[in-house]
Write a structure and sequence with these properties.
heterodimer; A: 276 residues; mainly alpha; globular; B: 270 residues; MetI-like fold; 13 helices
Chain lengths: 276, 270
């Protein structure tokens, strides 16, 4: 059952635009990405596992997942608070804050990186406050988590915001009039509609967090085994001409992020089917 | 009683949002300018005159001047293809368009290093013709093109989908040819979305760090884009220089946000 619909355009228009699109995509995306997998084919699956027998790489893998996970949870709460306040309340500065939420998307990561490092280092505005308590933020995993919160929470805001905006207020009013407490209303009426978008926003922030480089590389301090994340280790391995190891790490990261993307897609399809 | 607790939670939540906006979003921007102006306005202007910073700035513009138009053309064509025709394999194309978003910037650099690098697949051919892609401008352009590929397409696809093709159908039936329809019907309809996509694409192209970091080789004054120059200055403890260069990118990101607001107003008016 192959059905091609080109009206009102001709087959020539269709052929040309599809042809150029597919050509450009193959050249820029498909071939380079497949190339990565073919490069690892040389070392095989056992080879990839062997890459992770090196302590330094295992530590980085663990650290990347740990900071990615913790920051994703923080992003979920901060992001949801922003969504709730921006959609439901009127207050001074609302439009400005709504615009500023996009700042992490448009601010180059290297700029965010050096600014955050300065703020949270011992002499910085916030680092100074924690210094007397003996708490160091920059050059520790905490610093990495802060950078990932900066980068990640807008993903949650921008995925959940349109869903909450479209949620009819009558549903809630109905529940409240029928005697439900605010908490029950939230749990039984609002939350079931929102959780697919909350999960996919958090998932995006998590995926981005694991691969993030620019904003993290400055604040992490890059101490092997302590604050060295996977993307940085790839660069280190490349500089030491250990291409096989760099490729092995990259393939594992790539498979994980595609898996996350796949899960997000399933979630969103389910959610849109439910609403339809 | 009930209303009172309600407004208490309300203001508590609003306060939390104010607090995080100040700490997470505003403080970094203030820090950039504070550090850039640490030696006064003269220090700032002197740092701006740094030759390597200027050449990094020019290289950044050069790279985006190639990558952004290429991806704009592609993005429009891809959006046109998937929203105007029905054909099998459409979802595959959509997934592939999105995939650069899922790839870590460092890996985006790595994949091109594996193709064009010294031990790469194409190294023999490239050597034969004496072409150097890696650690040279073409490498930076290619990596930037990969990273920014989805932006325009992703802005246009939902827009063109929701607009439908009735107006174009009318135009074609009334005897206009394809290019007349493109100029008079399609482009005017999508212009704001297209502009917004281009702006986002450009912001990312100029600010990209991880991918170009792998492919640039960090040759001062030659293959350093602005973000890489910032890294180099920062690592040399030239804080004023680094933050001065960073302030240029902050202006770019403000401009992007401002234009975004403008576009949203225009789209809402429609």
């Amino acid at each position: 059952m192959v059905s091609i619909q080109t009206k009102p355009y001709t087959k020539v228009h269709f052929g040309l635009s599809l042809g150029i699109t597919v050509f450009y995509l193959s050249l820029m995306v498909v071939i380079p990405l497949l190339g990565l997998f073919f490069s690892t084919a040389k070392i095989g699956i056992t080879g990839i596992f062997e890459v992770f027998t090196e302590d330094r790489i295992r530590d980085a893998l663990y650290l990347s997942f740990y900071v990615g996970f913790v920051s994703a949870i923080i992003n979920m709460f901060i992001g949801f608070t922003f969504v709730w306040v921006l959609v439901r309340y009127e207050f001074p500065g609302k439009k400005l804050i709504d615009t500023l939420v996009d700042l992490p998307f448009t601010l180059p990561t290297a700029v965010a990186g050096i600014a955050l490092t300065t703020i949270y280092s011992q002499n910085g505005w916030i680092g100074k406050l924690f210094e007397p308590l003996g708490i160091k933020i920059a050059y520790t995993p905490t610093g990495i988590i802060i950078a990932l919160v900066f980068i990640g929470f807008p993903f949650v805001v921008r995925t959940v915001q349109p869903v909450l905006e479209d949620l009819p207020k009558e549903l809630e009013e109905g529940a409240r009039c029928l005697g439900a407490t605010p908490f029950t209303t939230f749990r039984k009426v609002i939350f079931p509609e929102l959780w697919p978008s909350i999960l996919s926003g958090t998932g995006m922030a998590f995926a981005r967090g694991i691969g993030e480089y620019g904003s993290v590389v400055f604040i992490s301090g890059n101490i092997p085994g302590k604050t060295e994340i996977l993307p940085l280790l790839i660069i280190t391995k490349l500089e030491q001409y250990e291409y096989a190891k760099a490729t092995g790490i990259a393939v594992v990261m790539l498979v994980i992020s595609f898996l996350i993307m796949f899960l997000i897609n399933i979630l969103q399809n389910r959610a849109s089917r439910r609403l339809a | 009683m009930n209303i009172k607790t309600f407004s208490f939670t309300k203001w508590l939540l609003i306060f939390i949002v104010y607090f995080f906006t100040a700490i997470i979003l505003i403080l970094p921007i203030v820090t950039v300018f504070q550090e850039a102006l640490a030696n006064g306005v003269d220090g700032y202007l002197n740092a701006l005159k740094d030759e390597d910073t200027i050449s990094a700035f020019l290289l950044t513009i050069k790279v985006s001047a190639i990558a952004v138009p290429a991806n704009t053309l592609f993005g429009f064509l891809a959006a046109f293809t998937v929203t105007r025709f029905n054909f099998p394999g459409k979802n595959t194309i959509l997934t592939i368009i999105d995939s650069p978003f899922a790839v870590s910037p460092v890996i985006s650099g790595l994949i091109f290093l594996l193709i064009f690098g010294k031990q790469g697949w194409m190294s023999d051919t490239l050597e034969q013709f004496d072409i150097q892609i890696v650690f040279n401008t073409p490498g930076l352009v290619i990596a930037t093109m990969f990273i920014t590929l989805p932006f325009v397409a992703r802005e246009l696809i939902p827009l063109m989908q929701s607009q439908g093709k009735e107006e174009e159908e009318a135009s074609l039936l009334l005897g206009a040819n394809f290019f007349q329809t493109l100029k008079r019907v399609i482009l005017p309809n999508v212009k704001w979305g297209l502009l917004y996509g281009i702006i986002l694409c450009n912001a990312r192209a100029m600010g990209e760090f991880g991918a170009v970091s792998v492919l640039s080789g960090h040759i001062r004054g030659k293959t350093n884009t602005l973000p890489l120059q910032i890294e180099m200055l920062y690592n040399e403890y030239n804080s004023v220089g680094a933050f001065t260069a960073a302030s240029l990118l902050v202006f770019l990101s403000f401009l992007t946000l401002f234009l975004k607001l403008l576009m949203e107003k225009n789209i809402q008016k429609k």
